[in-house]
Design goal:
The chain is mostly helical. Helix 7 crosses helix 8, helix 7 packs across helix 9 and helix 8 packs across helix 9. The protein starts with 13 loop residues before the first helix and ends in a 6-residue tail after the last helix.
Length: about 200
């Protein structure tokens, strides 16, 4: 047999390896793993981005704010792609946990800005008119949202919102909030009873 005929696998060219994904994975296992992980994250983002945007839209006043929060969340997901669980359900819960932290950060920033604004206004104002202390009635249609914010602490608000706004089960809400399912169940029952009593209607599920 002439030399050069019957090449074995060790003498394959680079083009041969590229054309054979199995050979490529064997030649560069780390690169293959990274590519597979990136493909999985891409599928996850495509699948969950719409629900994440809805999550933010229900908790912000403008679509622009919601879009900004979504962008920040997805950036964190890509930066931490190695931390994303392999299981699709767990990965979804993990992403909503990230979204919750991003939203919480925005709320803290907003409260700091409001506090600074109020402090500046107090320093620049010699005397506030007495009429400024008169309470402003809530806007029509905001009754339930205002009631939730008034009656419930932050954790109970999040539980009610995750269950009734976002459609999560109590176990899923517990995973997103990092709480025990039993804790979420009991807090959910108390929060629902508070709201039902305040509204004096049996129609709240």
């Amino acid at each position: 047999m002439r030399a050069g005929l019957g090449r074995d696998a060790s003498s394959r060219t680079g083009d041969d390896v590229k054309a054979d994904p199995v050979a490529a994975a064997k030649a560069d296992p780390a690169g293959a793993a990274n590519a597979a992980r990136s493909a999985r994250i891409s599928e996850l983002v495509e699948r969950e981005a719409g629900d994440l945007l809805d999550y933010f839209l229900r908790r912000t006043t403008t679509a622009e704010d919601a879009a900004d929060l979504l962008g920040e969340t997805l950036l964190i997901v890509w930066r931490r792609e190695r931390a994303v669980p392999d299981d699709p359900i767990q990965a979804r819960m993990w992403m909503f946990g990230v979204a919750r932290k991003v939203l919480s950060g925005q709320h803290r920033s907003r409260r700091r800005r409001e506090a600074l604004t109020a402090r500046l206004a107090a320093e620049l104002t010699v005397a506030m008119p007495a009429a400024s202390t008169v309470a402003v009635p809530a806007a029509p249609g905001a009754d339930l949202r205002d009631l939730i914010e008034r009656l419930l602490d932050e954790t109970d608000q999040e539980i009610i919102e995750l269950v009734y706004w976002d459609g999560f089960g109590l176990a899923e809400a517990a995973s997103i909030l990092g709480l025990r399912p039993a804790t979420v169940r009991s807090r959910h029952a108390r929060a629902r009873a508070k709201l039902r009593g305040a509204l004096d209607t049996p129609g709240i599920p």
